[in-house]
Amino acid sequence: MDKDSMQLAGARLQGPCHICAFFHSREEEYRLLLPFFKEGFERGEKAFQIVDPRYRQERLQRLKTADIDVDAVTQTGQLDVRTWDEAQFRTGRFDQYAMLDLIEEVLTSGKAGGYRLTRFWANMEWALEDRPGLGDFVEFESRVNDLLPGHDDALICTYDLNRISASLVMDILRTHPMAIIGGILQENPFYVPSDQLLRERRERRTEGAELTGNGHAA
What's the CATH number for 16-207? Predict the structure, then answer.
């Protein structure tokens, strides 16, 4: 078995990877992802996690029940757990470029700190919040892929299927090269490279502006 590969959802993978993971409950999410992060801690890798502020303490407790010494790895910096207000909304609004800068900083500093790679776990229901700037969410997810060349890290974006619409699921699938669906990790056939997806979105905005300018409904 390749010592540099990672075990996730019944498959071996190597970074860099940007994965969307769909779950029906937090219990299902923990069952699948805790072993992945425990493996990383055992191999001396860094873990960066972004959680709903309501569940931060629950996350820390779940890590502890997985036999992870949360206090020790937090003190050394091997574990960094932040809430949405400390990441996506730290300026009070969502700024996709500031968030992309944060991800780049996390991945780069992990390597500089001596960690072979960073395993990144982000709960994404913040996209449903009533905050300014969230119209850029899909573009942000697409641009994350442009950060990955040159890194070896694994980024997992988790989504609660009970809270998101079918149309948002399709947008999410178009921005992630890999997906976990039904507990299985697989190549995502719906993925669209960022340059193509961003071009499509620009063209749609231009067409909408032209229709509005001609007096027609946008």
Answer: 3.40.50.300
